[in-house]
Design brief:
mainly alpha; about 0% strand; elongated
Amino acid sequence: MFLSRFITKPIFTRPIVYYGLCLAFSSWFAFCIAVLFNIPNPYWAAMPAWVIFQPTRGLLLERAIYRFTGTCVGAAIGFGILLIPIHPIAQLVIFTVLIGVTTSCSHVFRGTVGYGFFTIALTMGIVLVPSIISPTDTIHLAVSRVVCTFIGCIIVTIVLALFIPKFPIRSFYQKIHLLTSDVIFYSHQVITANTKEACHDIEQTILASINDINDNAAIAAAGSINKNRKLRYIDAIIAASLDVMAASRAILTRNQRSNVLPAEFSDDLLSLSKQISIKQPFDIKDTNFFEKWQIDSNELEPEIKRLLYTIEQLLAAEHALLNNIEQHQNFIKQNYTSTLLLPHRDWRVAINIAMITSFIVFVVSLTCYFYHVKMAEQIALGISIFAIVFGSFPFPQNNAPKLFMGVCSGVILAMIYRFGVQPYIPDAFWLLVTLIPFLVLAGISRAHPKTAIAAIDANMAFLFVGHIGMASDPALTILNTGLIYVLSAGLICGIFILLPRKPDKQALNAILSIQRDLDRIIAAQDAVNKNWYQQSTRQLLRLMLHLSRAGKVGDSAPNGLLSTLNVGYAITMLHAKLEQPNLDHTSYIQIKTILYILSLKPKGNLTIINELNKQILHIQSIDIRRIAEMLVDSLNESQPFFDYISELKQSIN
């Protein structure tokens, strides 16, 4: 059984070998250019390949651009600080502050933008740390390292771009199209269900699909200005999908008070879902659904009108994504306004990790500056590099074992090459030839998904510790360099393992953000504020974003996540009533009383829900009573969510 499974699942597949050979050739070719031009530290030209490599061409190009730009900016800042006529310790302080800023930005701005800030920090460290601790001739070495990095970026990008395929954008758009169909099918399932738990599994599946689309949207758009412009339509699809699901839940809860479903409505929803799944691209004109069910019809209940509006927004958003938007301005203007999901900015994590990274870099560099121990420059540079690298990881404690094993493997290979191969190399030609098998092994390891993370640091350690292409050093110097590199990696790994960023705590922060957003909507200003709608809409979009992120909590995620969106929707509707000029004083007081009761904590408390039910009994306006009932129903459905907050707090504390 074990043997058959081993045979059917080969370790090295064709794509792994293909990408591995491409990586090896690009790294080797960049190294050749640096050697042929007699640039000092030529091994720095071979390094960019291991970090620039990405599985799609667009992402590769973006990463290469940010690597090149980050190197330029980091080098300019680094050399600029060195030219300031101040004490080296003052230069070190400025450098430490900038490390904190760039490290925090690498977390605030995700993706390739964050990688650009990481590259700035790394380049500043490479330029400044050796020059401050040991200023003798280190500036020339820093210049050569930066030049080699530029050579590596350009050569590796050109070579890899010739072989790496584009992102499968058609299959990605197909996934978005299927999401549209699934969301409408979910709506059909929910409004025909007897209980709110009946559709929990399909709800979790769709939320997972939304998360996947949200995570891959930037990858799909990488390297294309036009596709980046279309990201707002993907945001709109995500927002509308969540709104359709929430509107469907609202109908389910409303049905428990009184039936709001027209005859044949659920069957028409199912038919619409099937039509969408069959035809791509799908146009609203391809169905008579909206002709049959007019949003402005007086016969339809408000909950049905809301669902129709959100479905129309969903289809219009997909239409805008799959078609040339400039040619359909009239359609878009009448039916759809693109949406922007505000990106998640985890400032708490960013600031904490920036402080830890800056502290490590400053203390180690300052210590090496005052105590001129042997190879102090390499000690400070090694620890600083690893601190900056770890500071860029979302969860460094997960990557620590892989990184340490990679460093140890790279150092061992460097020792084998320096002691077993390099002493017998007669000229530069044989240097390039003997390096090929090592780079092929490095490339395949980097391309393999199970060894990719460890291979990055293994390849860096091999080139950095081995000083490949440099003059032979004494054996003791080589051993000391390898030992310093391993100890530096071990020290930083240990520090970040002892200071982990727990996924549960980040999940709690994301869920608490939903609660804070509800508080902001409740506390919206009165009628004198003309921008209340834009503010509330922005908060609702943030709620949608947090809901999709909260779906990643895992199997323990509670029911009631979508119902929190209905809570926000009901609150927004109450504020809309406050804006009406013909609102009578009694209704005004009743709405303000409801909002005051709702502002009390915790939101899911049964006492608060009971108080709201008492207030509903005194409301004469049918519209306001309906909104208040929706609010209470949504709070009841959201109770597992608010209970989960307390449970998660207790488990973390």
